[in-house]
Amino acid sequence: MASGSKVRSGKTEKYLDVDELLKNLNLHGEELNEVVLAKEEVRRWPEVKWLAAGTILTRKSFSMQSLKNTLQAAWNPAQEVKFHEIEPNLFVMQAFCLGDWNRIMDNGPWLFRGCALMAEAFDGAAVKPPTPNRVQVWAQIHKIPPLFRNNEVLSQLASRVGDVVAVDGNVVQTRNGAFHRIRVKLNPAKPLTRFVPLTMEGSDPMFLQVKYEKMPKHCEHCGLMGHTYLECGTGEYEENQLQFGQWMIAEDIYWKPGTPGIRTRSAASEGGSVRGRGQKGGRGGGRFAGRSAHNQRKWVPIPSGGKKRNSGEAGLGMDREEDLEDSTSSPLKQPGVTGQAEKDSGARKKLDMNAGGEIPPPPPEYITPSEKKKRMRRAADAASEKSDKGSVNSDMVITADVAASEEDRRAQ
Ligand SMILES: [Zn+2]
């Protein structure tokens, strides 16, 4: 480098791009004498915790202040989350407690003006983080025949939709047929997947419909997220050119908080299925001991590419319910869903070993916060009474956190 000799603008411009400068400058002795950091040494330093890079999946410009206000309102963090803009539509966010971190990273998609926040953990080792490029969502695969309702098939099907984060072996029965839920990271450069074909050797393929829950806006013409068809090209399309219609969006009756639907449980609130970097397991484990089998994990976290996680990567989030009252705007609480960042825990090993090919256990029981309190009172009064209440509606369970989620949705 630095062979050029002309830096013409150097005399007048106060700010020049460093890369541009370096192309033209001849660096001298001390300027080339690097400060070298041994990897070992760096590893000993305390980590910069709960830092993430963020970007909004949109073509439009927006003000950071407006984004910050919207997200803070949606997250309702215990401690203010700091934002630092790196460049237009690339920023770094820092949380200051594990609860906030888990919520932000795992309870999405978070929407700003209908567009998704894409966030990735960032280790702080560069001035500019890589721009996140995945949207993590819940999706549903509909009408899988009973024979194929196992986690292995489900994972393979899910891998046709996106990078698989987790699959839920529980079937959700609805008037219009059954579905299974998956947590996937979508590549915003690819059109949304509408169907996944499943073929038994020698038979015709069955096309299983995919539906998406709480989605950022998407284009009915090209199938990409982040704009509408009216903003796509000229925006003038015939009906038959709109191939990615609203029928791809899941009926919210089956997932929206506050309606009868599948149960919810927050990964973030439940023993930290997802950890901040360097998190040492925190609140996990232990507290689950007395719960019914229903409440044990039903989720299979999967690494990208659809392979099963090893125990170190897998996440467990099924151990706790304590924060149900305090949940966020995600479509549902997210059991056992993990970011890539999490590391530890024996409990997770248990999860992983349980994972493959298991017959889906019955849906877990959901207990509303008020019911929970009542039960605790009753338990104190008379142990016998408790058993009557043991199985409220094992198929369909009321979702939690109506109020909190309503509020969040408004905020978005
Ligand atoms: Zn489009």
TrEMBL record:
DUF4283 domain: residues covered: 60-120
Superkingdom, taxonomy of origin: Eukaryota
Biased composition (Gly residues): 273-288
Biased composition (Basic and acidic residues): 341-352, 378-389
Pfam families from the UniProt entry: DUF4283
Region (Disordered): 260-412
Designated name of the protein: DUF4283 domain-containing protein
Organism: Lolium multiflorum
